[in-house]
Design goal:
Blueprint: E1 2-8, E2 12-19, E3 24-32, H1 49-64, E4 69-74, H2 76-80, H3 84-95, E5 100-101, H4 104-116, E6 125-131, E7 136-142, E8 145-152, H5 156-163, H6 171-186, H7 189-192, E9 200-204, H8 206-216, H9 223-226, E10 230-232, H10 233-244, H11 248-252, H12 265-279, E11 283-287, H13 291-298
Parallel strand pairs: 1-4, 4-5, 6-9, 9-11
Antiparallel strand pairs: 1-2, 2-3, 6-7, 7-8, 10-11
Helix pairs in contact: 4-13, 5-12, 6-12, 8-12, 10-12
């Protein structure tokens, strides 16, 4: 059976097509849309032309590869918008498939199981961090089961929309952003109720995979090298400081920097560093798997 999973996020759209019988990946696609920039103050979402262009591309590939089953999920941006019903109706009318807007709990489960799938560590407890465009999911996984989770309205696009700073991050701006994010995190009982400290941190999403790719220094992105890459707190802090001294055009020249991520990466690192501060952890492992791989597992 040829199966396709489609993840429509606040910042990026992703497609994964697999042959379930042969247990092999046939096609992988990812496009940065920045959809979160197209929701107005009244919480109405007006998708840009690139939204349709990328979906047209995905469904053309799906048709060409004769996919027999498809799951399409939308996350934070679709949960947030007030006109989600109209968006879903238009989606079905145009593409003849249903768009499932999944709950934060479902997103946490799919992300956790997907993110852990390529990790070769044999640990009992994990904290899985998924920094998205509109929300961040943090899950406690013990013995391969999600025990607890939180979904916080912190995301790379959401934070950029709040501050709109792209370069020249002075001391006061940095302090303000860090303080606001940390305040939002510590107000959540998830952290105070963590009963164990013996957990390994796994981070997925565009922020950790990008800084892992920058560290690897390969011209072409290699997800096999990124999966399982160990990053220290000191490295994450140093790359954050370095990126903030560059303008977006300079960041884009770095090996590993995907076009469309050169602005929001700064905000993803503010979030990631704040989470590590709350968790009191100095090391994490990167995963380039998430919702898509979780959907593939669930389809078994």
């Amino acid at each position: 059976m040829i199966y396709a999973a489609v993840d429509l996020g606040t910042n990026a759209f992703r497609l994964l097509i697999v042959d379930k019988d042969k247990e092999e990946i046939i096609r992988r696609e990812s496009e940065i849309i920045g959809l979160g920039a197209y929701i107005n103050k009244d919480k109405l979402l007006f998708p840009p032309s690139k939204y349709y262009k990328v979906l047209d591309k995905f469904f053309k590939i799906i048709k060409e590869l004769k996919v027999s089953r498809i799951d399409i999920v939308g996350t934070s941006i679709f949960r947030d918008c007030r006109n989600k019903d109209e968006i879903k109706k238009e989606f079905y009318s145009k593409y003849k498939y249903n768009l499932q807007i999944i709950s934060p709990k479902k997103e946490s489960q799919l992300t956790s199981y997907g993110a852990l799938s390529p990790i070769k560590l044999k640990r009992k407890n994990y904290i899985v961090i998924d920094i998205g465009g509109g929300s961040t999911e943090i899950s406690l996984v013990s013995n391969k089961v999600v025990q607890d989770y939180i979904s916080i309205k912190l995301g790379v696009v959401r934070e950029f929309n709040k501050y709109r700073t792209t370069k020249n991050f002075n001391k006061n701006i940095k302090k303000s952003i860090f303080n606001n994010i940390k305040k939002k995190l510590v107000s959540n009982s998830f952290f105070s109720q963590l009963t164990c400290s013996d957990f390994t941190v796994i981070a997925n999403g565009g922020t950790p995979t990008t800084i892992a790719a920058i560290k690897i220094k390969k011209k072409n992105y290699n997800r096999n090298l990124v999966n399982g890459k160990k990053l220290s707190l000191s490295y994450i802090k140093s790359i954050h400081e370095s990126l903030m001294t560059m303008d977006p055009g300079e960041r884009l020249k770095l090996n590993g920097m995907e076009k469309g991520r050169e602005i929001v990466i700064i905000y993803g690192l503010f979030i990631l560093l704040s989470i590590l501060w709350v968790l009191k952890k100095r090391v994490l492992y990167v995963s380039d798997s998430g919702v898509l791989e979780g959907l593939v597992q669930e389809s078994n």
